[in-house]
Amino acid sequence: MAPTLSTSQFSNPAEVTDFVVHKGNGVKGLSETGIKSLPDQYIQPLEERLINKFVNETDEAIPVIDMSNPDESKVAEAVCDAAEKWGFFQVVNHGVPLEVLDEVKAATHRFFNLPVEEKSKFTKENSLSSTVRFGTSFSPLAEKALEWKDYLSLFYVSDAEAEQFWPDVCRNETLEYMNKSKKMVRKLLEYLGKNLNVKELDETKESLFMGSIRINLNYYPICPNPDLTVGVGRHSDVSSLTILLQDQIGGLHVRSLASGNWVHVPPVPNSFVINIGDAMQILSNGRYKSVEHRVLANGNNNRISVPIFVNPKPESVIGPLSEVIANGEEPIYRDVVYSDYVKYFFRKAHDGKKTVDYAKI
After folding, report:
1. How far apart are CA 212 and CA 14, in angstroms?
2. Which residue of 90, 222, 264, 295 could cross-link 231, Cys pair, CB 3.0 to 4.6 Å?
3. Which family is this protein grouped under (predicted)?
């Protein structure tokens, strides 16, 4: 039974916020009331609405890399080249079983289709663990305009912790997705590391590049007036590497480093979208680029995506790798404690690429 709201309730922004954020209905619940116009607090500033108009004006495309190429040096070169020039690429034939991808997508729909009472057990106020959070938008308290997205965020501590606290309807599928993609993640990090003179991913490097993992299940419901809002605002990720599984709907756009245009990342069946995060930009002393991206809202379809954020350990100190500055390169970033960097990111609304300036010398 879809929640109902009389239209008069929508004239009061506080009641929309209460319904969406505090009562746990999310924008999915709002969308399912059949509202015909976008509530005011979702209307983005003019600059963002203008980007919505002009996102598809370019024929640039991010690289698609076939990881099954028998010439591994070619794959490594393509990955590093894309990391430097685009900060984004897609991979196909990546070795992660396709049924694992289908199952985690199905599990994402299962979670968001749960009754509100069930999902609300995982809100910040109710969740029994700080590692599991069901929420909406990005940082509702910091944002001037809200984003048209609900999410379940899962920070991996251990299998036992997941067993105890993660939602039953998606736990096993999400863990399987995380585990089955590890080999590919490690490969990508090896390629990126070798190019920075990092000879091997030993334990120290591993805890720096992939010491912690967060997985989000994202839900972007059908939106009235999608041109007035965004699914996700402009931001770059704070990860070392983000691995994104998206469905066939589309809507992710990346800012081209070469032209500044917004480039659509078309859904390629059975692919992952990989992007460099701020931590990797800092570790590589700016050689690899963490690039701004955003997601359009959609007037016709519900969209899901399932990113894995591969991060340093929270207590890691990140700065330009010694291997990178060994050849006399000037460091452009200072050392920062990774958890401080992340706190800074979540304290403010999505504001493009400004976070990384926090670490600039």
Report:
1. 37
2. 295
3. Belongs to the iron/ascorbate-dependent oxidoreductase family.
